[in-house]
Amino acid sequence: MATSFPEIGDRPDDLALAAEVRLNDGQLARAAQYATCEEVQTGEVLYRVEDDSVDLFLCGTATLEATIPSSDDGDGHLFMTHSPGQFAGELNLLTGQRRGLTVRVAAGGTVHRVRPEAFRRLMAQETELSDLILRAVLARRRLLRQATEQNLRIVGTAGSAAGLAMRTFLDRQGVPHQWLDGDSPQGAEALRGAGLTEDDLPAALTSHEATPLVTPGVLSQQLNLTYRRPGRGSADLTVVGAGPAGLAAAVYGASEGLETVLLDGVAVGGQAATSARIENYLGFPFGLSGADLTARAAVQALKFGVHLASPCGVTGLGTQGGDHIVTLMDGTRISTRAVIVATGAEYRALPLDGWTELTGCGIYYAATDLETQAVAGRPVVVVGGANSAGQAALHLARYASEVTLVVRGADLGARMSAYLVERIKSDPRITVLTGTQVTELHGRPHLDGVSLATRAEVTEEQRVDCAGLFCFIGARPATSWLSGVLLNSAGFVPTDRQLSPEELGPAWKELGREPLPYETSVPGVFAAGDVRLDSMKRVAAAVGDGASAVRSVHQYLATL
């Protein structure tokens, strides 16, 4: 029976208690069955910061010390001591990231080394141990992020598009780091020490190297978050897109024994991760943020052994020798038996001069804590008439001085849930303007205002001061990379009964069957979530799509 744990809080005492778990003799003996026993000597280094190794070390009779490196190249700071019955390692055991700690032997004795493949078997087969280890590594990651000294320092401008992209990536990937504003004394000193200038922002600094003009893609490679080939020659299932549909597909696929690869071109969570609050998802009566929901799903996926790579853009899909070939931006080709397309949709922008220039510098597509920090205490404008816009307006009202909700339609309740409409109308901090549109952007290099006009009288414009324009006007399917798969005129992917016999082609006649549920015009390629034609654009529906598509994947694989 699985061990159930309460939610781990952020209080240091709670985290320390969870992080310092000790296995009893029986648990240690079971875990050691997946390991090789080694003798280690006092002072021996088992791994260093930025090592690629992701072995788990169980303490038999030895005692180990984990240290956080110091920015002054000293011996570092003691992070945690692992005595007999405990283990060394944190969340990188699951993510494959480079080590963020150095572990030395404080007292010689025996350790049990668990290699990555054996570790995945342990996590899949030993439910009690899996829960203990998972809870401990999550707590250690939180403690590591709270530590004042970090090996990875990012110097950037929080109000810039590049700075926001980097902070969003680091936050959604859960990467321990220290953020330094480029115009702060600490940031300026760090730049001088690395031989860099403000023209090199954002920059990533470690004890070994300085990377100017760093991007999420470059940092992802340095952290080992890019795709690495699974143990077998080809994957059973490759899921493209790590939103709710893709995460659900990956969890169900891996938990049911499929060698599963999960890829996302931006960051785990998709558009759902940008939602400030989700209150209508079953099982969470008090609501939770989209980032929390998708972060939990990502941990589940890693626990079941999913090979997760993000950011990892996909540029093409083809077939070769009976397998499907997924091509990545760097030219890497992934051979896989089945594919689930869950790339969701891309944000729509308003056709206004300066939009691209101001994106990330006052124009935002999300209203998470990162964006609200940039506009706290100042007026903002939210554009959109669906639930995402309503949730954003309510969330921003807690931080901004005032919120103006701009809706093109005449009725706020036309596309928004009734409970949100009632809350917005009763909130004195929110002004609702229906039948209205944004006609002009003001301010460079940062947004400081917009012009509004009613749709009936576009010539009569009203300027509204705002530090942030939050855009939630819908999205278009992210299918420009998808070749060979039939799309409808709007770019969505039709599946199963939506495909006519004339659209299926000769390959289906040879198979002698019709497409399975969620299967596209290409046998073995499935679609789930917002990218699928006529899907319900809700988080719960996307999760159901992903899980159901895996059932069809199993049926398809059984026919091969």
Layout: helices, strands, pairs:
Blueprint: H1 12-19, H2 25-32, E1 36-40, E2 45-47, E3 56-59, E4 63-68, E5 77-82, E6 87-88, H3 92-95, E7 102-107, E8 109-114, H4 116-125, H5 127-146, E9 153-156, H6 161-173, E10 178-181, H7 185-194, E11 203-205, E12 210-211, H8 216-222, E13 235-240, H9 244-255, E14 260-263, H10 290-303, E15 307-309, E16 314-320, E17 323-328, E18 333-341, E19 345-347, H11 355-358, E20 363-364, H12 369-375, E21 380-383, H13 387-396, E22 403-407, H14 418-425, E23 430-434, E24 436-442, E25 449-454, E26 461-465, E27 468-471, E28 475-477, H15 501-504, H16 506-511, E29 525-527, H17 539-559
Parallel strand pairs: 9-10, 13-14, 13-18, 14-15, 18-29, 20-27, 21-22, 21-27, 22-23
Antiparallel strand pairs: 1-8, 2-7, 3-6, 3-8, 4-5, 4-7, 9-11, 11-12, 16-17, 17-18, 19-28, 24-25, 25-26
In short:
The protein has 560 residues and is α/β, with parallel strands linked by helices.
Features:
560 residues, alpha/beta, seven-stranded mixed beta sheet, five-stranded parallel beta sheet, 29 strands, disordered N terminus
Please provide a written account of the structure.
It is built from 17 helices and 29 strands. With 560 residues, it is an alpha/beta fold. Strands 13, 14, 15, 16, 17, 18 and 29 form a 7-stranded mixed β-sheet that branches. A 5-stranded parallel β-sheet has the order 20-27-21-22-23, with helices on one face. The two termini are 35 Å apart. Mean pLDDT is 90; it is low at 1-7.
